[in-house]
Write a structure and sequence with these properties.
The chain is an alpha/beta fold. It has nine helices and seven strands. The longest helix is centred in the middle third of the chain and has 22 residues.
Amino acid sequence: MFNFNQKNVLVVGGTSGINRGIAENFARVGANVAVISRSQEKVDDTIKSLRALGSKKVAGRAVDVRDAEQLKNQIVELTAEIGRWHVVISGAAGNFPALAMNMSANAFKSVVDIDLLGTFNVMQSVYPYLQKPGASIINISAPQASIAMIAQSHVCAAKAGVDMITKSLCVEWGVEGIRINSVVPGPIDGTEGMARLAPNDAMRDAVKKSVPLKRMGNVDDVANLCMFLASDFASYITGAIIPVDGGWVVSGAGSMNSILAAAMKS
């Protein structure tokens, strides 16, 4: 259904979990793919996978999205290697369950800096090198952006900000033909985030029961939406916040608050 031959895709945070799955799916449909993450070892491993999946041009850099100047420098180098960006996925994120009164200011700041400031840094760094018109930017958000959760005040604040960056830049950059959307993954199996929020079988079962479709999603579910939003099929979609969650957000994330409250007591 999708063909991204001769399209250049940058996936920030693209060496693990959902973001790596997105990068690999774009490679399968012919895109040239570059990845950024903090770990050079993970970058090298992901590059091998992307090549094996068929990407003709592949590149990667180890950089922290909180370091604006270093990020800009690395994106300049990646653009020189790959070309102007048709698609940018911004997915760098951090999370850990912590009650507000048990969390230090630095712990709160670390999540806000990675999720929110990091998103801003990515947007500002890639802007000069986007294909104009026609570029598609996709920010990876989270249910916490719209649903208050126990032990997630830092993530709720940061991801709500990410969605407002999506909406604000949709307005600012739309005149240049740049589309910006947020994708909101729900409970996605096999990811580090889900492992932290539901670390045992009882919690996993409770999460599944809280989803209207009564199952967790998988990485391909998220990647498929990203490919749709990046394609011409979605050429008139921008500023949207779209969940991939089996109806989880609509149902108020089910029993997630009770699950997190139990986790804080254990």
